[in-house]
Amino acid sequence: MQEEVAILIALMSLGTFTLIGLKMWLGYRTERLKAPSGTADTEGIVDAVDALRDELAAVRQDVIELHERVDFAERLLAREKEERQRRLPS
């Protein structure tokens, strides 16, 4: 009789610890799924992407301005070359 009670107590203790562990694990998993852990990271990434887009727009504007300057310089050089050719005797 005492052996049966001891086995019953051992099984109940094992079951209790198993249930407590399962409850803790499920609670952890549930909180992890509920927690907006990615929200702050996502906002930071969105801010970084917006900043990169602004910087890219500024770089594109700089490239456009440089292209215009190169075109202007090429026209000046071509005009100067034509004037030198006119001055030379044929």
Gyration radius from CA atoms, angstroms: 39 Å
Low-confidence stretches: none
Q: What is the structural class?
A: mainly alpha
What would the average pLDDT be, to the nearest integer?
Answer: 87
Number of strands: 0
Order of helices and strands: HH
Oligomeric grouping of the chains: single chain
Estimate what percentage of residues fall within beta strands: under 5%
Shape: rod-shaped
CA distance, first residue to last residue: 131 Å
The number of helical elements comes to: 2
Number of domains: 2
Helix content: over 70%
Sketch the major β-sheet: none
Describe it for me?
The chain has 90 residues and is mainly α. It has 2 domains: 1-35; 37-90. Helix content is 93%, strand content 0%. The chain is built from 2 helices and no strands. The longest helix is centred in the C-terminal third of the chain and has 51 residues, at 37-87. The radius of gyration is 39 Å and the shape is rod-shaped. The mean pLDDT is 87.
Topology:
Layout: H1 2-34, H2 37-87
Question: Any key phrases for this structure?
Answer:
90 residues, mainly alpha
Give a quick precis of the structure.
The protein is mainly alpha-helical. It is 93% helix and 0% strand.
